[in-house]
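Collaborator request log, item 7. Partner lab (contact: R.S.) asked for a structural prediction of Transposase IS200-like domain-containing protein to inform their binding assays.
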Amino acid sequence: MANRKPIEVGEWYHCYNRGVDKRKVFLEERDYDRLLLHMFLGKRPKPIQLFNERDHRLVTILRDSEKATGLDIVEIGAYALMPNHVHFVLKEIQEGGVALFMQKVFTGYTMYFNQKNARTGALFAGTFKSNHIADDRYLKHLISYVHLNPAELFEPGWKEKIGDLSKVEKRLREYPYSSLPEFLGHTRPHRVLLGNSAFELFDKVPTMGQMVRDARTYETLNV
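Returned to partner:
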């Protein structure tokens, strides 16, 4: 269950939220890209400012990291975006950084989504939830859990049983809206979203079987 303890500098947290009434919050590719863009800009202390269409091109901005200067307020360790919810692995760098990051990302994205779709009101289900990650082993379990979350899209019930593991692995490798490709050594502009700490946990890339076991362990510990 999510805790309500104060978030502390230097500690890792599993932060997540879902659409209000479990509605889809991403309807097309550019919606996912827009939230990733808010993540990139939101981890810096300055307010997010997007004035023109050129500013909205994700790959352009990710390749031009000088557009966001200054000390990060959080470190992003891993992430996964799903049609109706999101998962972040975040380390608080500056006091209040996680809360500020989440506020900037979700407020900015909601404004974008509502304007684009001619709607009003809340898009996400209240305040984000967070679990404190107490140690490195627990953090590794969480990273596997976050990266396997998209498996639910093509392998429902994977947390209990997975059929063709090789098929699941292939689909996860191809899923563009998580940080798993970076952990598998793929080169994308998206690497600048992530810090280095989470990568340093792994001596080698875990097998898909190990990731499944770790993810199930995390799920069991957080029932």
